[in-house]
């Protein structure tokens, strides 16, 4: 005797797809911390959003029914998991060993959903069972097993892949605290990528020879001094000329022609990535009619020298993030036809953009010490710290839900209430400028 779920639901108009733990553990594209949202691409009506993402991604960005990825609602165990700044997931739950189900709802949302217009992604974390079980896993990839990309061959002139090593390892354990009454599931994983990267730009800037020519032509210029101290060739990372140098002819204060050698720039920087994740889930049955569940998720990730378009000229940015999610649910069965579930959650995310290995971008706590951005004409490299860095935010989200389901005869009724409160202190260059404007206004 075999059984399978029906292709079309006859009792619910909601369009949804569910991937169980066995499917998740077997499907390629989500293993080794590659991101669970790759599963969404297997659902009808879902496509990769490519350059129209505008949001965080858990492996890949995707659009549903033509609506861009920022409009996807991200949940963990039915609770809020949206980044309030750019959209997408707030906590990147990507270890398939921790996931019991991955659900994607693409249309005709039920009454408990509908916050966003795109889709609803709900990740259900695993629970313990009456049998002790667990696993230990690890994966390895490195530059010796990889090949050069077309960009590295055509534009960076590389002969071999820059050194990197991607190691992902972890383990889980789950079982009964008290048989048939209380269960525990716990896990830990970490990923280490101690690599280096080559950053190159074809936009032109004075080479070391060109800076010497500028110093001769403009001996008292503060702009030339700034370029000597903070220009692309004055910053660490072993900068070298990218492309064939050309001469740019300027006019000195005496009206004489001043040829200045200019070219693109290329530098090599370390770009290590480290991440640590933990999960703890406890389920308990208080009585025949009550079920309780507690879940804690922790994540710490540190990326160094990320390229937001400024690494080649010597202004990459580190990103440091901490996230914690606490969730509690209480399910009470009033009768065989009436069930109520109350949920409570608290989520805290801290993200800091600032600092780097060459000391050109200050930490997020020292925004006012950042060097001003000097914008150059098209085709030439800018100088200084990007105008959107350093910055940081601390996102606190409190959520309370109550959902009930009542079955009467051939009908099913659902209802509930949701309360979400967010408190997010942000700090960026705009806040510093705002305070300065306020100060000037009071002086006037």
Please give a structural write-up:
This protein has 444 residues and is mainly beta. The protein is 10% helix and 47% strand. It has helices spanning 21-26, 150-154, 208-217, 222-230, 429-443; strands at residues 15-20, 46-48, 62-64, 72-76, 79-80, 99-107, 119-125, 133-142, 165-178, 182-193, 196-206, 240-251, 257-270, 273-287, 290-306, 317-335, 338-353, 391-408, 411-423, 426-427. Strand 12 and strand 13 form a beta hairpin. The longest helix has 15 residues, at 429-443. The protein is elongated. The termini are far apart.
Note the topology:
Layout: E1 15-20, H1 21-26, E2 46-48, E3 62-64, E4 72-76, E5 79-80, E6 99-107, E7 119-125, E8 133-142, H2 150-154, E9 165-178, E10 182-193, E11 196-206, H3 208-217, H4 222-230, E12 240-251, E13 257-270, E14 273-287, E15 290-306, E16 317-335, E17 338-353, E18 391-408, E19 411-423, E20 426-427, H5 429-443
Parallel strand pairs: 4-7
Antiparallel strand pairs: 1-6, 2-3, 4-5, 6-7, 8-9, 9-10, 10-14, 11-13, 12-13, 14-15, 15-16, 16-17, 17-18, 18-19, 18-20
Total helical segments: 5
The overall average pLDDT, rounded, is 87
- Beta-strand portion reads over 45%
Structural class: mainly beta
Main sheet overview: 10 strands, antiparallel
What is the CA-based Rg, rounded?
27 Å
> Percent helix among the residues?
10-25%
Which H/E pattern describes the elements? EHEEEEEEEHEEEHHEEEEEEEEEH
Estimate the global geometry from the Cα principal axes.
elongated
Oligomerization: single chain
The N- and C-terminal alpha carbons lie at a distance of 85 Å
């Amino acid at each position: 005797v075999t059984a399978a779920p029906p292709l079309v639901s006859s009792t619910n108009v909601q369009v949804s797809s569910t991937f169980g733990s066995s499917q998740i553990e077997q499907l390629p594209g989500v293993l080794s911390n590659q991101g669970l949202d790759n599963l969404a691409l297997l659902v009808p009506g879902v496509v990769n959003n490519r350059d129209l993402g505008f949001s965080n991604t858990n492996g890949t960005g995707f659009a549903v029914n033509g609506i861009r990825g920022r409009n996807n609602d991200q949940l963990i165990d039915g609770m809020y998991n949206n980044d309030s700044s750019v959209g997408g997931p707030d906590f990147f739950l990507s270890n398939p060993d921790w996931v019991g189900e991955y659900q994607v709802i693409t249309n005709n949302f039920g009454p408990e959903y509908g916050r966003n217009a795109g889709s609803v992604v709900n990740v259900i974390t695993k629970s313990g069972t009456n049998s002790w079980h667990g696993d230990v896993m690890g994966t390895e990839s490195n530059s010796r097993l990889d090949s050069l990309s077309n960009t590295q061959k055509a534009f960076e002139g590389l002969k071999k892949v820059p050194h990197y090593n991607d190691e992902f390892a972890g383990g889980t354990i789950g079982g009964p605290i008290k048989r048939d009454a209380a269960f525990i599931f716990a896990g830990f994983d970490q990923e280490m990528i101690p690599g280096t990267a080559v950053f190159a730009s074809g936009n032109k800037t004075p080479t070391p020879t060109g800076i010497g020519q500028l110093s001769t032509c403009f001996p008292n210029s503060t702009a030339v001094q700034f370029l000597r101290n903070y220009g692309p060739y004055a910053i660490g990372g072993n900068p070298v000329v990218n492309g064939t140098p050309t001469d740019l002819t300027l006019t000195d204060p005496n009206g004489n022609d001043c040829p200045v050698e200019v070219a693109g720039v290329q530098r090599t920087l370390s770009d290590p990535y480290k991440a640590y994740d933990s999960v703890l889930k406890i389920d308990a049955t208080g009585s025949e009619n009550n079920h309780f569940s507690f879940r804690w998720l922790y994540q710490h990730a540190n990326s160094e020298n990320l390229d937001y378009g400024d690494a080649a000229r010597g202004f990459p940015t580190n990103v440091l993030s901490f996230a914690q999610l606490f969730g509690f649910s209480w399910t009470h069965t009033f009768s065989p036809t009436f069930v109520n579930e109350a949920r409570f959650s608290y989520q805290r995310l801290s993200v800091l953009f600032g600092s780097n290995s060459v000391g050109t971008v200050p930490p997020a706590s020292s925004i006012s010490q950042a060097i001003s951005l000097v914008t150059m004409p098209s085709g030439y490299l800018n100088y200084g710290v990007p105008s959107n860095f350093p910055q940081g935010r601390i996102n606190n989200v409190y959520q309370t839900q109550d959902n009930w389901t009542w079955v009467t005869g051939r009908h099913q009724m659902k209802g509930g209430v949701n309360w979400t409160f967010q408190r997010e202190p942000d700090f960026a260059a705009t806040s510093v400028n705002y305070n300065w404007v306020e100060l000037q206004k009071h002086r006037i």
